[in-house]
Amino acid sequence: MNRNGWTTKTWTTKGGEVREGKPFDRSSLRRLLTNPVYIGKVRSGDEVFDGVHEAIVDATTWEAAQALLKSHDGNGVRYSDSSLLKGIIKCGICGASYSPHSSRNGNRRYRYYVCQTAQK
To answer: Do 49 and 67 fall into the same domain?
Structure first.
């Protein structure tokens, strides 16, 4: 999506300020892929109801995408309390938070922090 130049929607605030669309990141893409509007439904809180609009994605494709997303979820916990600096250290260039990451070389795991802006 980003390679094609697609962005999130551009919108106008109540005060009249225009907010330009941004490139997609993981969270905006997940929001897009899990939005039931595309299958003709609407969400209200935790409940999903039939909408009055037509679906633009068929149910089979929708279910396959949801299953694929669910298979990649895991338990949502990548790091335990070993990431002591998570949310504390900031990038000296852009001011974004650093997030914990790791890599492996054989049986050895190397843990480090990466600027969230650089990661995106």
So the answer is: yes
Q: What mean pLDDT do residues 5-9 have? A: 92
Domain limits for position 26: 11-71
In a domain, 101, yes or no: yes
pLDDT in tens, 44-76: 988 999 999 999 999 999 999 999 888 876 555
Could you give the angle at which helices 26-33 and 59-71 cross, rounded to 10 degrees? Answer: 140
For strands 41-44 and 18-19, give the pairing.
Answer: unpaired
Q: Specify the number of domains making up the chain.
A: 2
DSSP 43-97: EETTEEEE-SSPPSS-HHHHHHHHHHHHHTTTTS----TT-TTTTT-B-TTT-PB
Question: From the CA atom positions of the chain, what is the Rg in Å?
Answer: 19
Residues 66 and 84 in one domain: no
